[in-house]
Design brief:
It is a single chain. The protein is mostly beta strands and 97 residues long. Helices cover 8% and strands 30% of the residues. The protein is built from two helices and six strands. The longest helix has 4 residues, at 17-20.
Length: 97
Amino acid sequence: MPFYSYQYNGNAGDGCDHCRQSFDQLQKLSDPHLEVCPLCASTVSKIITAPNVAIGQAHLLKQDKIESKGFTQYRKVGKGVYEKTAGKGPNYISDDQ
């Protein structure tokens, strides 16, 4: 679901701090665009903004940085068996109890 940005589009004295300074609203693609501020019911209009898009795998942590960021990474080595590749935790995780 994308975030849409809205801003108050009326006279300077109307509206609330929420809509005069613009706000973001998480909406489904099928939802209609907002026409009024959800807090004060003043008229608002949608603002065109640049999308936030992660291309490729640049947004993923590199394997050598995983542990320094506090994560643990495992890779599958067999049916129900995972081996630790980075971070703290057990060396193997298995569904055999």
